[in-house]
User: Fold these one by one.
Assistant:
Number 1:
Amino acid sequence: MPRPPQAAAPTPLIARGRARRIASRHVGMTLLLSATMVLGGILLYLWPQMRLVGLGYRQSKLLAQRTHMLQRQKELQVELSSLRQLRRIEDIAAQHLGLRPPQAAQVIYVRPGQQHVVSQRRE
Amino acid sequence: MRLNGRFKPYNGPRLRLVVGFLGLSFCAIFIRLAIVQLLEHASLRDLATRQYSRNIILHPERGRILDRHGRVLATSVPVPSAYAIPQEIDNPDAAARQVAEVLGQPLSTVQHQLTSTAPFVWLARQLPPEVGERIQKLNLRGVQVLQETRRFYPKRHLASQVLGFVGVDGLGLGGLEHLYNRELTGTPRQVILQRDASGRTVQIIEGDPSDQPRGADLYLTLDERLQYVAEKEIAARVQETQAKSGLVVVMHPPTGDILALASYPFFNPNDFQDSKQRVWQRNRAVTDPVEPGSTFKLVTASAALEENVARLTDTFYCENGFVVRNGRRLRDHHGYGLLSFPQVIEKSSNIGTAKIAARLSDNQLYTYIRRFGFGEKSLVNLPGEEEGLIRPPKKWTKPTHDSLAFGQEVTVTPLQLLTAYAAVANGGWLMRPRIVEHLVQGDDTQFFAPQVRHQVLSSQTIERINDILIGVVERGTGKLAAVEGYTVAGKTGTAQKVERGGYSHSKILASFVGYVPAEAPQLAIVVIIDEPLRAKWGGEAAAPVFKRVAQQALYSLQVPSRQNQMLSLETALKLPSAPQPEDHEPARFVATVGGQSGEREPARVALSTGWKIDKDRRP
């Protein structure tokens, strides 16, 4: 009686090729994963660096603005001090507003500690 | 090379050559790496740092100078300055035309600057901001604008001789600006920035560029209002009397604080390079000693009373105005006969004073002159102070004793004279005059406390001298110094100026020194008018200035007069309306709240118009 044909066992060459394909797929995946991780790592590293540079530029711009504003404030303070010259104020009081210094008897000195009453009165 | 599915390693000479070459290359790279990392590390790191980082020296902003109430007298403002780098300019002639037009300078000057061989040339410094902007807008290669600071005095000539001035390079060249230059200038600070190729700041490596360093702020004892009053009045009086110059110094006797120091003609420190003003830049209150004349009789009278060699009831024969004593002719401006001790001072008799002084020995008189602080620096914190001249008794000639008695053969600075009168005013204590109250550097404050030098006179002598000086103003030569509502004590002086080895008959120095209110002095004031043409006596030329300055200063310092005591606000508000003043013009009435000396900003309240103080309702 003839023996039934048996399933042919895979040849070693086929098995090796398949194993190689599987292995190379794994390697590819690993490489892709590694590359992604490296890229991610690089991005993670570079993003704050870029952000830092961007913020640095922004800070620099704001500092320049601040310096400019302080300079303007200084100019205005100087102008204010100039406008507060007593000679100028006296001239305005006398010539434009018609004021004159009070005579000695026209002055009332109020004792200290009365300021709150004065402020209420003025309101 | 494939043999039975296996690779046979090639081990030929070519491979060895390649491997050898690569090995050598790697060795070379490693060696170079070692050199770079180990040997050249520091220098290369510096090179790299220099490429991307920039060191900036932040020069401190010069500190301000303020009065005792914090009002700014001197400050610094950033201003543009134009410069050129001639080697970078492509077309100097065309550039010169544009720059000269903007700067308003002669074309030849600018051409000369732009064709210079120097690597850096200032075109114009401390320009108005709009001119700086116009220069920048020209956008010329090699012509640039940078920011410098300029000292600015917003009150112009106010206290200019005290403040001094600052040169274009930011160095104090006169007055307090010079004396306190180190403190005002401050310490520079370094900031390191990381910059990109276009010069923009990427990152701050070290320091804080926003934290601009500052020099110390200098707070003076001067009061701007009193300074203004003093300057206004002395200028007016010098013009009225057609004098050469004049000065006023106001002091607070209990502390020695100088509240005002005015010297006319003034100079504007914003324009310090004006050669016409240069002669008036000196602070003559401390730099120019003068013969004091009759104001010096204070020393003679005080010494005689303190040494008990004369009493107030003693009388002196004044020779009807002329006598020859010790080989010298003595004259009085009026002929007097018999005068009591106080009358001698009230009438300012030279002969009477010489006779009082005759009861003192040379050493006694000299001791009191020195005790009042004459002949030595007052140690005020102002530059250029002179000590005056007083010779020791062994160098005196025969008439020296008499001359010294009425203020000749001695020179004193106006500040020394004022300090001596302030000593009488404060009960006998010679104070060190003070003009800088404190320095503020960041959070640190350095105070300059008032300093007593020594006691000059006993309280008993002070009382007597005080009465005599009150008499000078009430009955004597100083009547024009009287201030309504206050008791004034003082002494007039009319000193002949020295000219060609003798005393001039035409050139005089008119003066008045005094204090007010005499019962509790708040102000000591010296007034000196140099060579007045219209009023020839101290009582005529200088005393009115004392009156005007004192009146306004007392008002400003809220020192109530005898007629005008302090009221509570409720009482003041209940005062009835009074008829309008005689001239029927509406008057403005001011109530002043406070009155405490040293109060920073006393509130002033305009209450109403048409009020009058009712004496019966005054508490």
Number 2:
Amino acid sequence: MQNLMNTTQGKSALVHSGKPNWMKYLRKHSFLYLLLAPALILTLIFKYGPMYGAIIAFKDFSPIKGILGSEWVGFKHFDKFLSSPNFEVIFMNTLKLSLFGLILSFPVPILLALMLNQVRRAGVKKNIQLFLYAPNFISVVVIVGMLFIFLSPTGPINQMFSWMTGEPIMFMSRPEYFRWIYILSDIWTGAGWSSIIYVAALANVDPELHDAANLDGANLLQRIRNIDLPTIRPIMAIVFILAAGGIMSIGFEKAYLMQTAMNLPTSEIIPTYVYKIGLQSGDYAYSAAVGLFNSVINVVLLVTVNFIVKKLNEGDGLY
Amino acid sequence: MPIKHSSFDRFLLKLNGFFLALAVLVVVIPLLYIVVASFMDPSVLLSRGLSFRVSDWTLDGYQKILSNPAMIRGFGNAVLYSSSFALITVTVSIFAGYALSDDRLKGRGWFMTLFLITLFFGGGLVPTYLLVKNLGLLDTIWAVIIPGAVNVWNIILSRTFFKGIPRELREAADVDGASEASIFFRIVLPLSKPIIFVLILYAFVGQWNSYFDAMIYLDNPNLHPLQLVLRSILIQNQVDPGMISDQLAMAEMKRLSEIIKYAAIVISSLPLVIMYPFFQKYFEKGVMVGSLK
């Protein structure tokens, strides 16, 4: 009824008034725009606002003068970062942590999914999944807390291996262990959950394909290689692009919690550095410049990796 | 027709079962250790490891943690932040998802691009912090809830879902004279209950488990959510002196600080353990989140 009224109103408006078309259109579909408005406004303020605010990276920012009032200094802060003795260490730490992380973590969920796919009894499969997914729901604070507990000099790991090593290993304060601990605990936390997407894809494979291959004498490994793997290859490509494109956007949260004064030589990465100089020391402009530098590298990486995978994968890219 | 396995295949399948069992053990043992250790007399744990003798067990850890005001306050704050965040982010995101799913919305492509860009590029930590500060949101619950309220993945997900609802359904209602609003609230939303439920669960857990925004935006310890309290107990080793009465010796304090950690982990995970079975039902929905291009 109301809709009918709207249309008649619209028609009469068309005839009688000189209101521009877009206003009529807006009035007719105002409800849709009303629904869109909150997300749009919040995004403009809290996502695009900071992008505008990022211009302080090119200024001598003083909170009193504000973003517009502060003076332009060009690439001064970027030069300072790129020529600082910290740069190479922090940059390489970031790159190594995420690159090694990607290489070691990427295959695990795929392997788990292929293995789960071979479990014939649905109930058993479901229960295994229930256990493997669980760590994904544990908070990063608790994960790191558990690392400190298990790896402490008096903790269970050292208790178990003390007969071998003689004296306790100070896992959390030795720089050479930081990456291993970070990456392996990441796999422990996330591998099960990340396998879910592959498991679902494999469940859609037509069983008759396997039957036919079996009749033709293909063994299990051959069937996995020629039926299962091609099924999940497009998903692998997308997951890989997203992971590789995000290499420099490695999370702050876990690394920061795992940092101890002793392991900083390997555990200081760009996000933690940005936090420390920006919010702890108050050097806003310099910190914003380092952050912006990181974001730009990220976008370049994402575009590059997407391009390469697209080429290799006959058009199965992200976009 | 069942697959006939060669002996080689059967061997592989046995191996497969073995390694899967191993994977389950690798996940379960650390969790089980924490739970058992939270009931153990710390001195026994330190000297002999886990013990299943009742005389070695104690509830000291739970007693201390549950009488810790910071922990209780943190728990309350976390419930408040997580439920308000879940409510707001899901509402905002599915509203936008619905609008963007409708072909009549002009400029959908532009709006979508606007949202998608934010997935890959952002202003960074400091500009965001300064914005929140300038808006006067520091030390308020809004600083934790609002800046991250728009979840682009949820918008994409719900848009895809709404597109799957047959157009005829909406058009039939349209013909019956239902307004746009009542089509959405009376017809589309009730059909979308499962997906809304999943999104709310995820949003709740995400907020429950996060500490970063609270750490940078909330200075006032009375506003700290559970994860920040946990951080000070587990990682910074700051056991609130109030938790252990003053007359106790330093050794006793150190002894208790360990068992308090285990108990704190267990208590903080309880809500998630309770919610986990609900999740299981919707695991497949989680797949949708991942499989979207």
